[in-house]
Amino acid sequence: MTSLRRDFLKFGAFGLASAGVTGGSLVLTAGEAAAQSAADSLLPKVIDRGKVLVGTGSTNAPWHFEDDAGELVGMDITMGRILAKALFDDETKVEFVLQDPAQRIPNVNTGKVDIVCQFMTMSGQRAQLVNFSRPYYVEGVALISRPGNEIKSYDDLLTIGSKARVSILQNVGAEEAVHEALPEAEVMQLDTQANVLQAVDSRRADAAVVDLSTVRWLVAKNPDRYFDSGKQWRSMLYGAAMKQGDLDWLTFVNTAFTIAMFGHETTLYDAAFKTFFGLEPPTRTPGFPTI
Amino acid sequence: MLEQIVYAIPFLFGGLWVTLVVSALTVGISLVAGVLLGCALIYGALPLRLLVRLFSDTIRGIPILVLLFFVYYGFPAIGIDFDAFWAAVTALTLFKTAQVIEYLRGAVQSIPRGQTEAGMAIGLTFAERLRYVIFPQALRRFLPPWINGVTDAVKGSALVSLLGVTDLMHSINQVIGRTYEALPLYILGAFIYFVINYSLSALSRRLERRFSFMQA
Predict the structure, then answer these.
(1) A97–chain B Cβ distance below 8 A for any pair
(2) B80 touches chain A (CB under 8 A)
(3) What is the rounded average pLDDT of the residues B66-92?
């Protein structure tokens, strides 16, 4: 037993020594490691290319818009930068491909972009067409009106019943979304978020149903022009979309997002969360993983 | 409102340039291709005429929006993978070419047959008849619908923003997306498009006057 044990130890010592030699030569670079992922995975291709192609928009603050300097900024843009940082340790190695919201699924499925970060609501129907990353924001909808309107609060709108006119972005289930909060309201579906708000500005609608983040952004920036009617409902998860059938890429993106939201590199996410939503990110406490 | 318009102007130059380039490429390429294919439709051999007729009728029968998405998403399947800009230019050019074919056919066929016969009687070759007899007279009839089509091309170029190309309309939407002030920007956009198209219409009238001596 002893000899066996000794032999075993001898083998172990030899094994460790040889492992040290061979292991040294087996240390892989990031590129080589990525090359070991599935042959048709996007991960090695993106790394070889040296930049990640992120499909997004440029016309919806605070998600994706150009600031006064003409720079593309917003929460979606930050998620693209977080991905570039995880891929190349350089948040600038990202190319944002501008696209219409209607192009989100076609562009990712035809390979025009590697990933889409464009305020995309995760839904069962969409999940049959694309893979979603972990959610990076929980959006809601809210009512926005004008401070000078006679009818402006949620209670006012509820009181006038079918006389309430409410604008909302054209979308599947838009009518139902309004009627959940205002069952009798007349619904006006419009093509862009700007036109949804224009309907309120031009008094074609008493209030608009827009994303909660947009209400916060607008009321904070223009308190004399917009009024938070005081009603929020419907939680929606926003996630990034990728082509189906690429587990390595999906796992990489999820890992990058999780680290940026809960791990040791939360600077980019936290700064964006504060800038674009006016909210303090929650404190992360070491110990039990709450993610 | 004036303040918002003044604020927006510097952000629109890039988009305006793209609109002008897309329009110029569409109009230029479709003019050359449309005239060549139009001649083929009028004077070509039967198979060629049928092919051009099929092209023209098919393209004119498809909404331009569908054509735009078809070129962008459908062409890669046959190995032609344009970026968004060139896909948009290709789709708009295909559509405009089909129209130019018909403008040319209408203009040439409206010249009385006696003009061709007179040219033949004095011994002009086919190319000479076209150059000295038919085309100079057809030009005056071709110009008004063609320039009308050019203004349509400028306005139609706004569709390229649906592929994410930042043209004038998309630049306007970018500023609106930041400020959520839609109306002043729409007024500004309408004014810029009007200035471009009114200039083209004025040019059209001058050209028509210039070629009026060629009245058949």
Answers:
(1) yes
(2) no
(3) 90
pLDDT of residue A24: 44
Q: What is the dihedral of CA B195, B200, B204, B205, to 10 degrees?
A: 10
pLDDT (0 to 100) of residue A33: 58
Instruction: For residue A98, give the chain B residue with the closest CA.
Output: B164
- Residues listed for chain A: 291
Number of domains in chain A: 2
Distance CA A166, CA A206 (A): 6
Task: State the sign of the Cα–Cα–Cα–Cα dihedral A192, A197, A198, A202.
Answer: positive
Confirm or reject contact between B166 and chain A (CB < 8 A).
yes
Domains and CATH numbers, chain B: 2-214 (1.10.3720.10)
Cis-peptide, bond into residue A44, ω within 30° of zero: no
Lowest model confidence (mean pLDDT) among A31-45, A62-76, A264-278, B118-132: A31-45
Residue A27 included in any domain: no
Task: Please judge whether B165 and A194 are an interchain contact, meaning their C-beta atoms are less than 8 angstroms apart.
Answer: no
Q: Which of B75, B174, B183, B187 to mutate to test the interface with A (most CBs of A within 10 A)?
A: B174
Q: B52-58: long-range contacts at Cβ-Cβ below 8 A with a sequence spacing of 24 or more?
A: B52/B101, B55/B98, B55/B101, B56/B98, B56/B101, B56/B102
Q: Among all residues of chain B, which has the CA nearest to that of A62?
A: B178
* Percentage of chain A modeled with pLDDT above 90: 63
CA distance A192 to A199: 11
In A, minimum Cα distance to B176 occurs at A194
Q: What is the CATH number of the domain that holds A232?
A: 3.40.190.10
Q: A244 and A126 in one domain?
A: yes
B35 pLDDT higher than 90: yes
Find, in chain A, the residue whose alpha carbon is nearest to that of B185: A194
Residue A264 pLDDT: 92
Are B164 and A110 in contact (CB < 8 Å)?
no
Residues of the domain holding A192 = 140-236
Query: What is the per-residue pLDDT for B50?
Result: 96
Residue A18 lies in a domain: no
**Closest to B176 (Cβ–Cβ): which among A98, A102, A194?**
A194
- Among the partner-chain residues B164, B165, B183, the one whose CB lies closest to the CB of A198 is B183
DSSP state of A29: P
| Claim to verify: residue A243 and residue A124 sit in the same structural domain | yes
Task: Tell whether A195 and A269 lie within a shared domain.
Answer: no
ipTM of the prediction greater than 0.90, yes or no: no
B205 and A CB contact within 8 Å: no
The answer to whether the Cβ–Cβ distance between A100 and B163 falls below 8 Å is yes
pLDDT, one tens digit per residue, over A203-250 is: 999 999 999 988 988 888 888 989 999 999 989 899 999 999 999 999
> Are B55 and B37 spatial neighbours (Cβ–Cβ below 8 Å)?
yes
Confidence at residue A101, expressed as pLDDT on a 0 to 100 scale: 87
CB-nearest partner of B177 from A60, A97, A222: A60
Dig out the tokens for A188 from the structure: 């006006």
